[in-house]
Design brief:
The protein is an alpha+beta fold. It has 2 domains: 184 residues, no CATH class; 106 residues, Alpha-Beta Plaits. Strands 2-3-1-4 form a 4-stranded antiparallel β-sheet. Helix 2 packs across helix 9, helix 2 runs antiparallel to helix 10 and helix 9 runs antiparallel to helix 10. The chain is elongated, with a radius of gyration of 32 Å.
């Protein structure tokens, strides 16, 4: 009998406040979709960092004849074969170094021509202008400074560069976008909570006669609050379901469209998306229930 009464009260409440309930569902859906999107964006950035940082190299560029005439760092002349072999031998002795590859000036010229074949400068550059280099793969790319401090300024070394620095701006931008998404998500969650609180209080006010009778017959505070809490929970659950469908739809578009056209980005898989959905559903259930409980705690207190 009690369960039937609670269910009937839920139906009455949802019908009476249909417009506000719909607003709650939409706001919860949008805020939770942003929550899921922020979690996936964090996973995507971490995945890209692991993917690209694992492939970055430290490049030690050696002085050539042109550098010896124009670059103060090469004022002592172009790098000799002995200097190159000495540097390479020292690199191989470091536990931090995973692999060392020697790129000749001719190989550098071929790579440049391949990469810049559509550029008008490709026909102007000559092999003599290219530098030979030692490409160093580290076991820990964050330890670039160890290589830089050990070999920068050495005789025969023109410069030491780290590809990791080229990626920092990209990842800083992605992290900034993620922070902005989290901020927008927090704002939407606040809006959703305020809507839930107002909807529950309007519903309680419209049924103040029924709740007054329940107080007179000795019903507990929780029993009086239960229909309102369940109304908010149902609205939140519907919003969470719509948010999950939205996330699945967006990722389906990314997986079928962007992944094929941007192969250089290692997009997160379906396992990452599915791992986020439980958090969205739990938040969609818990947030409205807690908001309704605290909104009514004093209002319906016996």
């Amino acid at each position: 009998m009690r369960a039937h009464f609670v269910l009937s009260e839920i139906g009455v409440g949802l019908r009476r406040n249909l417009t506000m309930t719909f607003a709650v569902i939409v706001s919860v859906a949008l805020s939770l979709a942003l929550l899921g999107g922020a979690l996936l964006a964090r996973k995507q950035v971490n995945s890209m960092e692991d993917y690209w940082y694992d492939r970055v190299e430290v490049s030690i560029f050696l002085c050539n004849e042109i550098d010896a005439e124009t670059d103060p760092a090469c004022s002592r002349g172009p790098a000799t074969e002995e200097q190159r072999d000495e540097i390479e031998a020292e690199l191989r002795e470091l536990a931090l170094v995973q692999e060392v590859y020697h790129e000749t000036a001719e190989e550098a010229y071929e790579h440049y021509q391949e990469q810049q074949r559509d550029s008008p400068f490709a026909s102007v550059v000559t092999p003599e202008q290219m530098q030979e280099s030692l490409r160093v793969k580290l076991t820990d790319p964050t330890k670039y400074e160890v290589i830089s401090s050990a070999f920068a300024g050495r005789e025969g070394v023109q410069s030491v560069t780290d590809q990791r620095s080229l990626l920092e701006n990209l990842f800083n931008l992605l992290n900034g976008v993620n922070i902005a998404a989290v901020g927008l998500m927090m704002l939407m969650l606040v809006v959703a909570v305020l809507l839930i609180v107002n909807t529950v209080r309007v519903s309680a006010f419209s049924r103040r006669r029924e709740t007054g009778i329940m107080r007179l017959v000795g019903a507990s505070s929780f029993y009086i609050q239960l229909p309102f809490i369940l109304e908010a929970t149902i609205a939140g659950l519907l919003g969470a379901v719509f948010a999950c469908l939205l996330l699945l739809g967006v990722y389906l578009g990314i997986d079928s469209f962007l992944a094929e056209r941007i192969p250089v980005i290692d997009f997160v898989g379906w396992d990452a998306v599915l791992s986020v959905l439980p958090y969205v559903l739990v938040t969609g259930i818990a947030m409205p229930a807690l908001a309704a409980f605290f909104a009514l705690y004093k209002y319906l207190k016996v």
